[in-house]
Amino acid sequence: MDNWLPTLITPTPTEGYDLAVKLSRMAIKKTQPDAAIRDRLRPEYAEDADALIAVSAVVATHFATIAAANNHWRDAT
Amino acid sequence: MDNWLPTLITPTPTEGYDLAVKLSRMAIKKTQPDAAIRDRLRPEYAEDADALIAVSAVVATHFATIAAANNHWRDAT
Amino acid sequence: MDNWLPTLITPTPTEGYDLAVKLSRMAIKKTQPDAAIRDRLRPEYAEDADALIAVSAVVATHFATIAAANNHWRDAT
Amino acid sequence: MDNWLPTLITPTPTEGYDLAVKLSRMAIKKTQPDAAIRDRLRPEYAEDADALIAVSAVVATHFATIAAANNHWRDAT
Amino acid sequence: MDNWLPTLITPTPTEGYDLAVKLSRMAIKKTQPDAAIRDRLRPEYAEDADALIAVSAVVATHFATIAAANNHWRDAT
Amino acid sequence: MDNWLPTLITPTPTEGYDLAVKLSRMAIKKTQPDAAIRDRLRPEYAEDADALIAVSAVVATHFATIAAANNHWRDAT
């Protein structure tokens, strides 16, 4: 696999959040490498409130990591 | 998408908490971009105790990140 | 909304814990602003072991944040 | 309520772990103050694998906080 | 109870991980002290994917604590 | 068991993420050592959206630990 995650540094919190979303999806990709199956599962969880909240929890954990990596973007404010 | 999250810095913990709520919702928006579907799901989880507690857990994780970014607002007290 | 959370600083861990409970409930209030619905949900989760444990998890996350804000009350011991 | 949590400092990790268990239970007590109901719920979750694992997760979060408060008991080793 | 957790320090991450597994199990033991009931529950969760993943989450939280205690074993590399 | 985790240090975040995936799986292996049972469980969770999200949550917690160990790979950028 290519070097898909060269750095945790992002210019803004907005881009840091997008990276957190990306990280949350990558674990699913690595656990279920078959794109066809993932495509079949997607509508199932994208229309289920509990699953969406669970996704949001994973994003929150990754965002904490990315925010720490970026020193919470304090210098950018 | 616009720069919806320019900073994690807030004047008070109260506003930091509101930002945490916003961050918890944004992941849902990014996973389910269709506003009509989200509107349909909303009453479903807003009247379900388990879902509300799960939302609260996500807010707690984001609030930890925002509190750290603001040095826990120690200088504001 | 008023400035309901002016500070994360508390004199003792006991009061810090109470604040964590308050923070865990506030997210539910902000997601379900209708007090009548919340009152209806309350007995449902207050008598359900799984829901009570889930609430406890949220309190634990908030308590970690508040403890860090208070430098773990080390100077108070 | 009395000052049931005067400090997070414990002499050993063993006692820190016990304190984490205590903290995990206190949130349940504060959410369901009726001892009779809690007693009725107890066998329900104490014999349910999923509930026991969920309790263990809460303990883990509190133990992290207590360990940090005690500087991970590094000086005690 | 004896001093079963005298320290969080381990020589290697491998042993730190084993300690995290031990910590995750201890909360279950303390919540359900009856070994016969625990033995009866074990096959139930050891053959259930959701329960195994939930156990893994608890181990991850404890491993974070133990890694921090050991300064992430940086000096050992 | 061999020293399967000699270090948490990785050259890049990409490899750190792979290590997080490995750590998340190891707890399952240690809780259910029978490879035949694990193989039987795998399709069950690899095709279940909720289970995949739960796995992703565990990976996120481990990735936070590994990122901290590597000083968030700040020197590598």
Provide a count of the helices of chain A. 3
Q: Which H/E pattern describes the elements of chain A?
A: HHH
Uncertain stretches of 5 or more adjacent residues of chain A: none
Strand content of chain A: under 5%
* Chain pair sharing the greatest interface: A-B, 32 and 35 residues
Q: What's the N-to-C terminus distance of chain A? A: 36 Å
The main sheet of chain A comes to: none
Overall pLDDT confidence of chain A: 95
Radius of gyration of chain A: 14 Å
Number of strands of chain A: 0
The assembly state of the depicted protein chains is homohexamer
Return the structural class of chain A: mainly alpha
Overall morphology of chain A: flat
Protein name (chains A, B, C, D, E, F): Hexameric tyrosine-coordinated heme protein (HTHP)
InterPro entries (chains A, B, C, D, E, F): Hexamer_Tyr-coord_heme_pr_HTHP (IPR021111), HTHP_sf (IPR038125)
Organism (chains A, B, C, D, E, F): Gemmobacter megaterium
